[in-house]
Amino acid sequence: MNNSYLSLDWGGTKLLIGEVSEEGKILQSKRYETGYVNQTEAVDVLFQSLDNYIQTAGWAGPKSPTAIGVGIIGRIDNKNGTWFQIDANRTEPIPLAEKVSKRYHLPCFIDNDVKSATRAEMLFGEGKNSKDFIYLNVGTGIAAGFVVEGKLIRGSHFNAGEVGHTLVGFGVGAKCICGRQDCVELLASGIGFDTCARILKQKYPTKLDIYDSPHRVDVREIVKLYQENDELCMHILDNAIEALSSLIMNLVRVTDPDTVVLGGGVVSNPFIFDRLKQKLINHTMRFVTNGVMLSRLNPDFIGLIGAAAVAINK
User: Fold this and answer.
1) Burial 184-208 (b: 16+ CB within 10 A, else e)
2) Which pLDDT does position 215 carry in this prediction?
3) Residues 213-261: tens digit of each pLDDT
4) How far apart (Å, rounded) are the C-alpha atoms in residues 222 and 228?
5) N- or C-end of the chain: fewer Cβ atoms within 10 A?
6) Residue 138 pairs with which residues in a beta bridge?
């Protein structure tokens, strides 16, 4: 077997650990729940989960992986392997790559989860056909990876791509952790659908189960009820699609891509994707010559492939 990479994808709700070939094929994987944690707790959970994975799954082939790649939420210094923060309220610079490498005796490389997914696109997806593209992830939250002339944009503080904190003109009244109100992430992500449902549930009749449930509403249920003309679900979903289309057209004006790749569980829903494309205005999108498309990489595993891509790139 050729080289393989031990990959960790820490997203908004879960940690996925697996082994990925240098061709981007997932050889095996296992899911672990994470929950709301600070960075120190997150490192403990990561180590406990990885210990369990090694003990229970082991290696996919006869030899150990070449390196470890970690894609994780928050602000990351990819070059030096430092994890600065999950968000502004959970900030503690940690030399995560060094800690993982010392514990498991393998080279370790880390990056932000969406930048990791963008790396996957660059190596195994639409990046083969484009040097100027946007990867927009719409899942639990919203963020983007910008590739310009073949290079992934990071910014002076490794915070480029946090486009979920963009205003798109809706007055729902959702207060964001960034200090503003009605950011697109609070309208059109998994978090956003739940937020809007709870804010607007008194204004529109609905069959959606949100009144006593501590769990986030299921976007698939919103789509299902939309098709049954549920007023709340129609209002929420129409707002979300309008907000996402505005975001995409705003971003296209910034970096002039020839390709826009969409990923994440929310936008991968065919019902949402089809209506989203209908909202994009031809004049604004005329230079996106390769089109707006869903990632060909499995949305459930693109982060895992991306974590491997981070290690392969290093």
Assistant:
1) bbbbbbbbbbbbbbeebbeeeebeb
2) 82
3) 678 899 999 999 999 999 999 999 999 999 999 999 999 999 999 999 9
4) 10
5) N
6) 142
Residues 6+ apart with CB under 8 A from 166: 183, 184, 247, 250
List pLDDT tens digits, range 168-194: 877 788 888 888 989 999 999 999 999
Neighbours of 257 (CB within 10 A): 23
Record the tokens describing residue 152, joined without a space.
């992934």
Instruction: Give the Cα separation of 263 and 189 in Å (integer).
Output: 12
Does the pTM of the predicted model rise above 0.85?
yes
- The amino acid occupying position 229 is N
Provide the mean pLDDT of the chain: 94
Q: What is the CA 267 to chain-centroid distance, rounded? A: 11
Q: How is residue 15 written in tokens?
A: 């940690």
Q: Specify the amino acid at residue 243.
A: A
Between the two ends of the chain, the Cα-to-Cα distance in Å is 20
Question: What is the sign, positive or negative, of the torsion defined by CA atoms of 162, 310, 60, 23?
Answer: positive
For residue 224, give every residue at least 6 positions away whose Cβ sits within 8 Å of its Cβ, in sequence order, or none: none
Cα–Cα nearest to 151, from 130, 165, 136: 130
Q: Which residues pair with 112 in a beta bridge?
A: 72
The segments of the chain whose pLDDT lies below 70 read 1, 211-213
Q: DSSP class of residue 126?
A: G
CA-CA distance, 86 to 83, in Å (whole number)?
8
Q: What is the pLDDT of residue 136?
A: 98
